[in-house]
TrEMBL record:
CDD domains recorded: CDC_Septin
Family: Belongs to the TRAFAC class TrmE-Era-EngA-EngB-Septin-like GTPase superfamily. Septin GTPase family.
GO cellular component annotations of the record: cytoskeleton
Annotated keywords: Cell cycle, Cell division, Cytoplasm, Cytoskeleton, GTP-binding, Nucleotide-binding
Name of the featured protein: Septin-type G domain-containing protein
Basic and acidic residues: compositionally biased ranges: 18-62
Highest taxon listed in the record's lineage: Eukaryota
PANTHER family (alphabetical): SEPTIN
Compartment list: Cytoplasm, Cytoskeleton
GO MF entries: GTP binding
InterPro entries noted in UniProt: G_SEPTIN_dom, P-loop_NTPase, Septin, Small_GTP-bd
GO biological process, one term: cell division
Length: 410
């Protein structure tokens, strides 16, 4: 009996010990959980604050957008009741976003036009640069058999058109060349044929727009961009450069470039660019992209970077060379190969991105909404004519422009 009592007491002691251990373990777990809760309580306010901040920002953006839309609706239809429905308020998927695919399909079927003018004196590599931009033989020299370089006595404009197709997208590219510009001893008023040509294209578009039976799609021959080539002198802008950009900057988007920039050192190039920017500012010359046309802060940041790089120091070539086992476009010299698409060597890639990859549509929009609109208002105000008189008007449309249209699937 005593043995059994001893055994029972031992067992009871063990159980008490186990209960004590369990109690200690529970205490440790509860303390840990309390610490965890404290940490969570400490962290949660920060996360909640961030989420609240994000929510407040989104709500602000949505409220601003709603206010803008409501303002536009009130201005367009002041007598109608207007409202703004957010995506979260919809009962289900409507499919409004599918309109982007529809627009893409229509654009790919119809294609689009892009007209680019190159201006500069002979020998600055205008034709080569255009070929390099579109990686094909699109310049006047390239498409003219048995071409001979002759200095023209007057400025004559030549247009060459190509249809370029890439990944199902068709673009009718028109390159307008200006041989004879700046090549004479007396270059007085050498910009007049160029101004006349640009205005003639606006006039053609205006006539088509005001016809009673308009075409479903008006052919667009307006100049969307003018690349102005500056010789790499390393000094300042010449009087002819200033006068040209002053006159044409009001009617077309000008993008100035330093031609054959490989003739300057990196330091000379940077100093030359700074002098050019100072000359443009002091003479009140506005080149593309203009600061007043920036639509939002994001676009302003992108355009500010471009404005800091203008004028672009470029090198053009259509010849390929082997560099580290890869074929690259470049100019071979005694000291090595100048890679055209290498940003460390020149700024051709920046120019290409501006003209084609990032701002092509914006160039067309600025041409239509700013330059053409200014011309249209001026013409209608000074003429004071009705639609029929404008169609029958005898506005001269011929200035000896030679056209050589070729279609190529490139």
């Amino acid at each position: 009996m005593e043995e059994r009592g001893d055994k029972e007491s031992v067992i009871m002691g063990d159980e008490q010990v186990d209960e004590g251990k369990n109690h200690e373990h529970q205490n440790i777990q509860t303390s840990r959980s309390e610490k965890g809760q404290r940490e969570e309580e400490h962290v949660e306010p920060e996360e909640i604050g961030k989420e609240k901040g994000m929510g407040i920002e989104e709500t602000k953006k949505e409220s601003e957008l709603e206010a803008e839309v409501q303002l536009e609706l009130r201005q367009s239809a002041p007598s109608f009741q207007t409202g703004f429905i957010r995506g979260t308020d919809l009962f289900g998927y409507v499919g409004i976003e599918a309109v982007l695919d529809q627009m893409r399909r229509k654009t790919m079927k119809a294609g689009f036009e892009f007209n680019i003018m190159v201006v500069g004196q002979s020998g600055l590599g205008k034709s080569t640069l255009v070929n390099t931009l579109f990686k094909s033989k699109v310049s006047r020299k390239s498409c003219t058999p048995d071409y001979e370089e002759k200095i023209s006595k007057t400025v004559k404009l030549h247009t060459v058109s190509h249809v370029i197709e890439e990944k199902g997208v068709k673009m009718k590219l028109t390159v307008i060349d200006t041989p004879g510009f700046g090549d004479q001893i007396n270059n007085e008023n050498c910009w007049e044929p160029i101004v006349k040509y640009i205005n003639e294209q606006y006039e053609k578009y205006l006539r088509e727009e005001l016809n009673i039976n308009r075409k479903r799609r008006i052919p667009d021959s307006r100049v969307h961009c003018c690349i102005y080539f500056l010789p790499a002198t390393g000094h300042r802008l010449r009087p002819i450069d200033l006068e040209f950009m002053k006159r044409l900057g009001k009617i077309v988007s000008i993008v100035p470039v330093i031609a054959k920039a490989d003739t300057l050192t990196v330091e000379e190039r940077q100093e030359f660019k700074e002098r050019i920017r100072k000359d443009l500012t002091s003479n009140g010359i506005h080149v593309y992209p203009q600061r007043e046309y920036d639509e939002d802060p994001e676009e302003r940041v992108l355009n500010d970077r471009i404005r800091e790089s203008i004028p672009f120091a470029v090198v053009g070539t259509d010849k390929e060379h082997q560099v580290n086992g890869n074929k690259v476009l470049g100019r071979k010299t005694k000291w090595g190969i100048i890679e055209v698409e290498n940003v460390a060597h020149c700024e051709f890639a920046n120019l290409r991105d501006l003209l084609i990859r990032s701002h092509l549509q914006d160039l067309k929009d600025v041409t239509h909404n700013i330059h053409y609109e200014s011309y249209r208002v001026r013409r209608l105000n000074e003429s004071n004519m009705n639609f029929s008189e404008l169609v029958l008007s005898s506005w001269p449309l011929k200035n000896g422009t030679d056209t050589c249209e070729t279609e190529s699937q490139l």
